[in-house]
Specification:
229 residues, six-stranded antiparallel sheet, signal, 2 helices, Copper amine oxidase-like protein, Cu_amine_oxidase-like_N, four-stranded antiparallel sheet, 2 domains
């Protein structure tokens, strides 16, 4: 699955800061493999919102190990919340109650933070938009669930944990989508990870990936990105 293609339709990680090399001196940076989540729709106070950075450049959320991170500065400005970046202390402060010692970031002071979404840390999975027959393990527990509508189309970004094996879960989704009229489909199921990608043209697209949980090796983490077209 090293060359697998990921169809990311909608949920992240680590703090990402862009700027001069001096910003990184002495920081505890760690190289990770993450994904730019171009398909995730964002709404702020009920209105569609596109995060932007320097010179109006569009920014995409970042998805890493089942969590999604949004650009702090762009989101804070949309919410009319003050955000400051202290380069010397290597600290981002959000809100007017933050320490006055930090200087406002200019230019490439973009960073990312976790998206809370809805039903975070909820027991079970209570999705309003996933198909009623969408297979879920009985012990599934949602760690992230973001649901929205964009131009009338339902969008779901779900991450859940389960003790079921990745082979069992991956096979269940493979069998499920074999009964659907998919015009595009890709499947890769292994003992330690799997990827199911499918699309029914004009109706919906879905990506389902599974890995061993980074936080608890006894659990597997499944991420479902599903959206109507």
């Amino acid at each position: 699955m090293k060359n697998k293609k990921w169809l990311i339709g909608a949920s992240v990680f680590g703090m990402v800061l862009t700027g001069s090399a001096g910003v990184y001196a002495g920081t505890k940076l760690e190289t990770i493999k993450a994904y730019l989540n171009h398909g995730l729709a964002i709404e702020v106070n009920g209105q569609a919102f596109t995060p932007t950075g320097d010179q109006g450049k569009k920014l995409a959320p970042i998805t890493y190990q089942g969590s999604t991170y949004l650009p702090v500065r762009s989101i804070a400005e949309a919410l009319k919340t003050e955000v400051k970046y202290d380069a010397k202390a290597n600290k981002v402060s959000i809100g007017s109650s933050s320490s006055s010692g930090g200087s406002s970031s200019t230019g490439g002071g973009e960073s990312t933070s976790p998206s809370t979404g809805t039903n975070t840390q909820a027991t079970g999975v209570k999705s309003k938009y996933l198909p009623a027959d969408f297979p879920l393990p009985k012990d599934a527990k949602a760690t992230s669930l973001i649901e929205s509508t964009v131009d009338g189309n339902k969008k779901v970004s779900l991450t859940y944990t389960t003790k079921e094996s990745l082979t069992t879960i991956g096979t269940s989704y493979k069998n499920y989508y074999q009964t659907k009229n998919l015009t595009q489909k890709s499947e890769d199921i292994q003992a330690d990870e799997f990827s199911i990608i499918g699309r029914e043209e004009g109706k919906y697209a879905v990506t389902i990936t599974g890995n061993v949980s980074a936080e608890n090796k006894d659990l597997n983490e499944i991420t479902v990105i599903w959206g109507e077209e």
